[in-house]
């Protein structure tokens, strides 16, 4: 038993050590400059990861921007407003959303979302938000915005189900106290529930972020796979995960492979830090809470 | 409650709530309620859209040949995904054989022996963190470990990658299930003189077994759709192969390859494959849910 429990440590350590070991060529060649280099030129042997970092940050930001308000809305609806008989079916349906594999999200996005973005939806966004200057240039349908949208659909169930758990962990006496002062239902949610659970909600959002950062397949299928930093959200991009998926099997030469593994190492460390902070935050809130009533 | 005499405090008559204020608050309340309902509808819309498209596009191309034939060469009609379905089965069997025993054992340790110890908390935390490691990173580490050594892609490497991904999920659900076993049952066994390890295995584990089985199915359903770790380990295969040390086809991989191809015929097959995959996953998730509502999986998420 102890052996198996410790094997979990071993696995994490082993992943870390093998990534460090295999990326030493590129670490020796580029050092920290790897992460600020803008060129990704396998032919010339010049590798810089900045376009991928930029793509990852932008798509994750779009995903959070869309999914956080929606997830909060769903969680508030499920815990505070929803009639009791609807509660179980709706939370089951949102959990089904989490069970859909990412390749199927990708398939759906390629054949449904991308044409939509190329056509009516893209034009609408351009008309509504064109003044920000973020939606310039040609719109191919594939690009960072599409990737962000599909990511937001994928991380939504994670954020909403955790937020729901955290909100149900708030003791009822808090709600009753606020209601007794004559608050409306929304004031009760805002003062009694959201304020009490904000640390946990931030943790849930960070867990969602961790998933968005590492998500591979669906993003690879719709982001357009072009290593360039561009201001327009319609432009095709690349993320840390998608460049590994797209180029790893075609990587010729040890330096190329090693650079890709270094990207993997960076991704591993970032997601571990984000996840660790998020877990600690969620634990801080839900620890010792009464078991949830579904 | 204030300890000062009441007379010392300035006596202000409570302000009567003005009508506009009340209306304003009631309006805000209604708006937020509306927004929450709207958010729920918006969230459920993609689910409905995805399922609708899967059934609409997939059902038309699903036929017997899909389950019995290997992929046809480019340009030819017909063909199926028999090799991918069998390949997925083999990889998942390998993964389960590796991930489930280790996961359950680690879960038993966490709940029965490591309760409150520093090591127990550390393992729990590491498992949660391992759960969040991107699957593509798992893929390249297994590639570096197995594929680079063997110098060829193999079904075995794919199985190892998925098996490792199952461990944290199985561990955490096992632990949660064991936590629901009443302490009195353990005490009864210990009181009869049964050693602690035997109590853990024959009493606690057996009592919690329905929940643990559903937890394993949940982990199974989760890795069944994983594509990224298989890209560089199992690789995929257009031909019939069941050999463990050869590249092998897998359903998610095949869907990915077909979806990204320029051929309409292959797109059709990708939809059909996606429908089969999602049916497999939905059925197991729903089974888990049925168990959960019976109270066996109480506390599981």
Describe the structure.
The complex is a heterodimer of chains A (294) and B (301). Chain A has a single domain (21-286), classed as MetI-like (MetI-like fold). In chain A, helix 2 packs across helix 13 (254-286), helix 4 packs across helix 7 and helix 10 runs antiparallel to helix 13. Chain A contains 13 helices and 2 strands. In chain A, a hairpin with a 4-residue loop joins strand 1 and strand 2. A two-stranded antiparallel ribbon of chain A has the order 1-2. Chain A is an all-alpha fold and 294 residues long. Chain A has helices at residues 2-22, 24-30, 50-81, 84-99, 102-118, 120-129, 144-168, 172-180, 185-194, 198-214, 217-222, 240-247, 254-286; strands at 40-41, 46-47. Chain B has 301 residues and is mainly alpha-helical. Chain B has a single domain, classed as MetI-like fold, CATH 1.10.3720. Chain B has 12 helices and no strands. In chain B, helix 3 (82-113) packs parallel to helix 6 (155-179), helix 5 (135-150) packs across helix 6 (155-179) and helix 7 runs antiparallel to helix 8. The model of chain B is unreliable at 296-301 (pLDDT under 50). At the A-B interface, helix 1, helix 3, helix 4, helix 5 and helix 7 of A face helix 1, helix 3, helix 4, helix 5 and helix 6 of B.
What letter string, H or E per element, gives the SSE order of chain B? HHHHHHHHHHHH
User: Compute the gyration radius of chain A: what is it?
Assistant: 22 Å
Helical element count of chain B?
Answer: 12
What is the count of β-strands of chain A? 2
Q: How many structural domains does the protein architecture of chain B include?
A: 1
Overall number of domains of chain A: 1
Mean pLDDT of chain B: 85
**What is the element string of chain A, with H for helices and E for strands?**
HHEEHHHHHHHHHHH
| Cα end-to-end separation of chain A | 32 Å
**Overall pLDDT confidence of chain A:** 87
C-alpha geometry of chain A: globular
Q: Any idea of the CATH class of chain A? A: Mainly Alpha
Low-pLDDT sequence parts of chain B: 296-301
């Amino acid at each position: 038993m102890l052996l198996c429990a410790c094997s979990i440590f071993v696995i994490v350590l082993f992943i870390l050590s093998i990534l460090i070991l295999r990326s030493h060529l590129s670490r020796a060649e580029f050092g920290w400059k790897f992460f600020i280099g803008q060129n990704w030129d396998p032919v010339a042997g010049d590798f810089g990861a900045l376009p991928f970092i930029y793509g990852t940050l932008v798509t994750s930001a779009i995903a959070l921007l869309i999914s956080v308000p929606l997830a909060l809305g769903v969680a508030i609806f499920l815990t505070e407003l929803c009639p009791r008989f609807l509660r179980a079916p709706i939370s089951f349906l949102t959990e089904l959303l989490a069970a859909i594999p990412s390749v199927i999200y990708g398939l759906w996005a390629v054949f449904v979302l991308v044409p939509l973005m190329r056509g009516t939806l893209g034009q609408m966004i351009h008309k509504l938000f064109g003044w920000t200057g973020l939606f310039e240039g040609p719109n191919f349908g594939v690009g960072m915005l599409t990737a962000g949208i599909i990511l937001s659909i994928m991380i939504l169930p994670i954020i909403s189900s955790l937020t729901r758990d955290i909100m149900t962990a708030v003791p009822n006496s808090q709600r009753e106290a606020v209601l007794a002062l004559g608050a409306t239902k929304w004031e009760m949610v805002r003062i009694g529930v959201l304020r009490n659970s904000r640390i946990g909600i931030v943790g849930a959002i960070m867990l969602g972020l961790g998933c968005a950062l590492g998500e591979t397949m669906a993003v690879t299928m719709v982001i357009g796979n072009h290593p360039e930093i561009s201001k327009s959200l319609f432009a095709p991009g690349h993320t840390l995960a998608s460049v590994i998926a797209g180029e790893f099997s075609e990587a010729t030469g040890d330096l190329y492979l090693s650079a890709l593994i270094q990207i993997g190492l960076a991704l591993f460390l970032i997601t571990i830090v984000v996840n660790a902070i998020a877990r600690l935050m969620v634990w801080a809130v839900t620890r010792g809470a009464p078991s949830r009533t579904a | 409650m204030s300890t000062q005499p009441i007379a010392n405090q300035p006596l202000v008559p409570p302000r009567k709530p003005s009508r506009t204020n009340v209306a304003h608050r009631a309006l805000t309340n209604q708006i937020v309620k509306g927004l929450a309902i709207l958010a729920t509808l918006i969230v459920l819309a993609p689910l409905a859209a995805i399922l609708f498209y899967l059934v609409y596009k997939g059902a038309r191309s699903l036929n017997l040949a899909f389950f019995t034939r290997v992929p046809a060469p480019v340009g030819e009609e017909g063909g199926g995904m028999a090799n991918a379905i069998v390949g997925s089965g083999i990889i998942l069997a390998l993964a389960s054989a590796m991930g489930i025993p280790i996961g359950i054992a680690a879960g038993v340790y966490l709940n029965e022996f490591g309760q409150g110890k520093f090591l127990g908390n550390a393992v729990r935390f590491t498992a949660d963190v391992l759960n969040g490691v991107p699957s593509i990173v798992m893929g390249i580490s297994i590639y570096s470990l197995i594929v680079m050594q063997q110098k060829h892609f193999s079904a075995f490497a794919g199985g190892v990658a998925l098996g490792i991904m199952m461990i944290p999920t199985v561990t955490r659900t096992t632990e949660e299930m064991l936590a629901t076993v009443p302490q009195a049952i353990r005490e009864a066994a210990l009181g009869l003189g049964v050693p602690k390890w035997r109590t853990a295995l024959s009493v606690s584990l057996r009592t919690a077994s329905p929940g643990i089985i559903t937890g394993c199915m949940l982990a199974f359903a989760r890795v069944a759709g994983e594509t990224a770790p298989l890209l560089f380990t199992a690789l995929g295969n257009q031909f019939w192969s069941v050999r463990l040390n050869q590249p092998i086809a897998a359903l998610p991989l095949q869907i990915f390859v077909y979806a990204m191809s320029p051929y309409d015929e292959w797109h059709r097959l990708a939809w059909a494959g996606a429908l089969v995959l999602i049916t497999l996953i939905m059925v197991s998730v729903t089974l888990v849910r049925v168990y959960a509502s019976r109270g066996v999986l109480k506390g599981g998420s």
